[in-house]
Amino acid sequence: MHYKMKNFVPIIILHWMVSACSHEAEIITPNDLQRLRYLKEVEWPKAYREQDAVLLDRILREDFQLIDQAGGRYSKADEIAWIKEHAIEHDSFYYEIKRLDVYPNGTAVVAGTGHIFNDTTYATYESSNVLIKENDEWKAILSQVSGYKEIN
Questions:
Q1: CB-CB contact of 64 with 141 (8 Å)
Q2: Sheet holding 137-151, edge to edge
């Protein structure tokens, strides 16, 4: 009997490991890429364009940090305060996603180019964003913005 129990323990451990791995894989659903694309291309720009602090609050996690092109670091509270005070004045904007990766542990990387049109001026910038999935919602925890340049 003791010998059979010894053989049974590795089977229990293997079952536990497989169950844990399959549970982790269930964090990501088939529509997560679509949800992330909509968040970055539609909702996030809308929050800034409409000075919608409530929407931005929903997008950013409490420990969110923005790193600007000068190396300055800003918190979620800083970003929400900033959009309340600064109306967007460009004519149009769109975000071109160049990288969108979702990982089994519930993290995602969204990186690309922002395109800004204002009268006769066209400008671009690059950004990288890290998001995590919590309670079935994607929240941004880090953004880095760099390379702003005007192209006439």
A1: yes
A2: 73-75, 60-67, 137-151, 121-134, 107-118, 92-103
- For 24, half-sphere exposure in the C-beta direction (CA atoms, 13 angstrom radius) is 11
Beta carbons of 132 and 105 less than 8 angstroms apart: no
Tell me the chain's radius of gyration from C-alpha atoms: 21
**pTM score of the predicted model:** 0.80
Give the span between the Cα atoms of 5 and 124, in whole angstroms: 65
Q: Higher model confidence: residue 20 or residue 58?
A: 58
pLDDT reported for residue 24:
46
Looking at the structure of the chain, the number of domains it has is 1
Asked, for residue 14, whether it belongs to a domain, the answer is no
Residue 2 has pLDDT above 70, yes or no: no
Cβ neighbours of 20 (radius 10 Å): 10
The residue assigned the tokens 């690309």 is: 112
128 lies in which domain range? 29-151
SS3 71: coil
